Amino acid sequence: MHTLKIGDKFTSELIVEEKHTAAAFGSGNILVFSTPMMIGLMENAALNCAQSGLESVYSTVGTFLDVKHIAATPVGHKVTATAELLEIDGKKLLFKVEAYDEVEKIGDGTHGRYIINAEKFLERVNNKSNKK
Asked: Distance between CA 126 and CA 99 in Å, rounded?
């Protein structure tokens, strides 16, 4: 099913644009990198870390986040998020996630993901439409 191992890492990055700000996202009214976007970048790093060790029929879904956003980042700065695989418990994966801008650490925490068979997962999800 996978070739994942403790210590696997992946990094995602972006340049903060106005569309990534708290004001644009609706999570605040200031033009700084938003917490939801930071979390999304951290999740992206974890997703790609996991995906790199999975067979193509498998994917992962996020199950929890425990993250602190500790410093603000202005528009125009690069943000880098890193996910490091800490634990593998069957299909459960635990990642250490961190984010940095060009000056300092801006966030850290843990993120859980769960390995799924993508086709079977979507079949179950789509069956919800039949139950409305």
From this structure: 34
